[in-house]
Specification:
The protein is mostly beta strands. The protein has no helices and eleven strands.
């Protein structure tokens, strides 16, 4: 089981930026799918971005604004969020699953391990 802990959330104005971090306990010798999800009040949890061995995927509404990346030496996953909008307001979760694939789907049900989430609030 992978332990995950998010940080970096906060409150910003429209157009602002935040960088979320997710400290992980992934095994350096293993391959994982890593992803970010978010859940707004009254809505279902939705995928934001994923990182596989070969490429990253993004949900359409964040393409060009968000970037997912990983620092393997620090065992940390990041989500750089630029040009933030009020619709980005949500609790953001990182997730992981052991998998050796080049591209990882951003689908909630395939991820086995989750962090507790960090709140992002964007004001207009």
């Amino acid at each position: 089981q992978v332990q995950l802990a998010e940080s970096g959330g906060g409150s910003v104005e429209t157009g602002g930026s935040l960088r979320l971090s997710c400290a992980t306990s992934t095994n350096p010798g293993s391959q994982y799918c890593l992803a970010w999800f978010r859940q707004a009040p009254g809505k279902e949890r939705e995928g934001v971005a994923s990182l596989g061995r070969v490429r990253a995927l993004y949900e359409d509404s964040v393409k060009g604004r968000f970037t997912i990346s990983q620092d393997r030496a620090k065992n940390t996953l990041y989500l750089q969020m630029n040009s933030l909008k009020p619709d980005d307001t949500a609790i953001y979760y990182c997730a992981a699953v052991l998998a050796q694939v080049g591209t990882c789907p951003i689908l909630t049900h395939i991820y086995s391990d989750w962090g507790q989430g960090t709140q992002v609030t964007v004001s207009s």
